[in-house]
Design goal:
about 250 residues; alpha/beta; Metallo-beta-lactamase, Chain A; binds zinc ion; hydrolase activity; NDM-1-like
């Protein structure tokens, strides 16, 4: 396991993992801290919890950007504490047998919740159905930092990976969700996977999705072959194919 903390602004940190190129967040207030995502299992969660304790002794609250295991299944290591997530995230965790945990104090972000960490307010928001049915982003307005979960990804030299587009992904409404988060005008955008970057990543992701959605429409209408669509896509072939062929919307 190879990991490092990077301070993005005063009291706003990202922990970067070589494994899965994962990014998790830590936001410090005067009274408590917020941990953004929890890694993928009990052991990984415990590693993250210990790493947070190396930074601060403040009591913590956690938020899950979505239900995928690599972001959510480490949550037990932080209990008992408040855990924020979208209702659809709770549903999926329940189906996976991961919500009924002893001491789990689950709180729902239906649309938008403001948390007061003491001298700092943080907004948790659901920008619409996109990468998963229950995506939540975390906006630290005073620091200009947005933790975007897997709504944006930042693979070397590009945006999405084949894993970005699962059966629970809704491609059609994803660009609108990106419009929502672009409107927050954060200077620093932290993807769920990949290095933190600027707001231009949101626009690039949106543009790539928009193009792939158009190609998918033409493939479905019989106007383009898969091969022709792959050739015209801004995304690598395996990533485009994952988007074109995924079940669901
Ligand atoms: Zn995901």
């Amino acid at each position: 396991m190879n990991a490092r903390w990077v301070e993005l602004a005063e009291g706003v940190l990202v922990r970067r993992y070589t494994e899965m190129d994962l990014s998790v967040g830590l936001v410090l207030g005067d009274d408590r801290c917020l941990v953004v995502d929890t890694r993928g299992d009990a052991e990984q969660g415990a590693e993250l919890a210990a790493a947070v304790r190396n930074i601060t002794s403040l009591p913590w609250t956690t938020v899950l950007t979505h239900d995928h295991y690599d972001h959510a299944y480490g949550a037990p290591a932080f209990l008992p504490c408040d855990v924020w997530a979208h209702p659809a995230c709770w549903d999926e965790l329940g189906k996976a047998g991961k919500a009924a945990l002893p001491g789990l104090l689950g709180l729902s972000v239906e649309h938008r919740v403001t948390l007061d960490l003491g001298g700092r307010q943080v907004v948790l928001a659901h920008p619409g159905v996109a990468h998963s049915p229950g995506d939540v982003v975390v906006h630290v307005a005073d620091a200009g930092v947005l933790f975007a979960g897997d709504l944006v990804e930042h693979v070397p030299g590009g945006t999405f990976s084949a894993e970005s587009f699962g059966s629970d992904t809704t491609l059609a409404s994803w660009p609108a969700a990106l419009d929502e988060i672009a409107a927050l005008e954060a200077a620093t955008v932290v993807p769920g996977h990949g290095e933190p970057t600027g707001p231009e990543l949101i626009e690039t992701c949106r543009s790539d999705l928009f193009t792939v959605l158009g190609l998918r429409e033409r493939v479905r209408a019989g106007e383009l072959s898969h091969e022709a669509a792959l050739a015209r896509s801004p995304l690598p072939a395996d990533v485009t194919l994952a988007a074109l062929t995924k079940p669901g919307d």
